[in-house]
Amino acid sequence: MNIVEKILNLAPSLRGVFTYTDLFHLMGARTELKTNRMIRRLVQDGTLFKIKRGFYTTKNPDLWVLACRIREKSYISMDSVLSRNGLIGTVPQRGVSAIYSGQGRRIVKTPFGTIFYYSIREQLIFGVSRAEGGIRMADSEKAYLDILYYYLRGVRFVINPLQEVLTEKLDRKKLAGYLKHYRNPKFVKFVKGVLHE
């Protein structure tokens, strides 16, 4: 089995996302120089796409997996989760929203879509579970609070979170419990106002 066949056979289980380490072990080239040459050839012939240093994909990778592998402690949230869980009608086709504990907002553009990373304080990371493929994902209630959190800070999304989210599908008790984590009274008041509480 040649290296292209090995990559294409392994791609579905990795959702089309490879790190440099994955490729180094898969190729068995023994040196970084040989591995780098092989990777360069695979990128040139279109078998692999270089996303950023140390991250490669095959055609049409799972952007959620890619987002969580690029920033290991990030989690998928906001419009991405609300769409997947049927709380908004608009489906972000070529973009994914992820949150991480770190500095500033970052954007990773790929040939397959864009990953938007938003930073948040470590204390506000909760309501997150691990899903299939190693994806860390917020539940609907946390995704809703996250989108309101950034909306209040001036970030605009494909949807208007004040009008286009089916809030009746949210667990109000869970939301109330989650709101206790937020020390900003302005944000808490804003959320309660949006929910008419």
In a nutshell, what does this entry contain?
By secondary structure, the chain is α+β, with helices and mostly antiparallel strands. Helices cover 38% and strands 18% of the residues. α5 (78-84) runs antiparallel to α6.
Describe the structure.
The protein has helices spanning about 5-10, 20-25, 30-45, 65-70, 80-85, 140-150, 170-180, 185-195; strands spanning about 15-20, 50, 55, 75, 95-100, 105-110, 115-120, 130, 135-140. The chain is of the alpha+beta class and about 200 residues long. The protein has two domains: about 5-55, no CATH class; about 65-195, no CATH class. The longest helix is centred in the first third of the chain and has 13 residues, at about 30-45. It is elongated and about 60 Å long. The model has no long low-confidence stretch (mean pLDDT about 95).
The geometry reads as elongated
Q: How much strand?
A: 15-25%
Q: SSE order in H/E notation?
A: HEHHEEHEHEEEEEHHH
What is the radius of gyration? 19 Å
The largest beta-sheet arranges its strands as 4-5-7-6
What structural category characterises the helix and strand content? alpha+beta
Count of runs of 4 or more consecutive helical residues: 8
The tally of domains stands at 2
Count the E strands.
Answer: 9
> Could you list the spans in which at least 5 consecutive residues all have pLDDT below 50?
none
The portion of residues assigned to helices is 25-40%
pLDDT average, as an integer?
A: 93
Instruction: Describe the largest sheet.
Output: 4 strands, mixed
First and last CA, distance: 62 Å
